[in-house]
Design brief:
58% strand, mainly beta
């Protein structure tokens, strides 16, 4: 069973920083794309940032310049460094792994973490 576990969420004041981590476990051979999404009540889940296995990145315009995504391929772990946090960053943040290949020979699988709450006070 493949599992993604997020950590690092919490309560922070505007202008503060948080670092989210997501570790994928299981019989994983490789993960081509890892990313972070977020969702607030009444809104669609949106892409925050994603990174490929070779380091190519994409960011939502709203977080570009403030957030940085990185990954450790050997550990199947992705990070999201969030700086200069704003109240509008408040959301549940979800880790995603896409195009996951397992040792059983299967591929192009997609997995989601359980989510971690980030609250930026005002």
């Amino acid at each position: 069973q493949v599992q993604l576990v997020e950590s690092g969420g919490g309560l922070v004041q505007p202008g503060g920083s948080l670092r989210l981590s997501c570790a994928a476990s299981g019989r994983i051979f490789s993960i081509n794309v890892m990313g972070w999404y977020r969702q607030t009540p009444g809104k669609q889940r949106e892409l925050v940032a994603r990174i490929t296995s070779v380091g190519n990145t994409n960011y939502a315009d709203s977080v570009k310049g403030r957030f940085t995504i990185s990954r450790d391929n050997a550990k199947n772990t992705v990070y999201l460094q969030m700086n200069s946090l704003k109240p509008e960053d408040t959301a549940v943040y979800y880790c995603n792994a896409d195009q996951v290949f397992l040792y059983d020979g299967s591929g192009y699988k997609n997995y989601w973490g359980q989510g971690t709450q980030v609250t930026v006070s005002s």
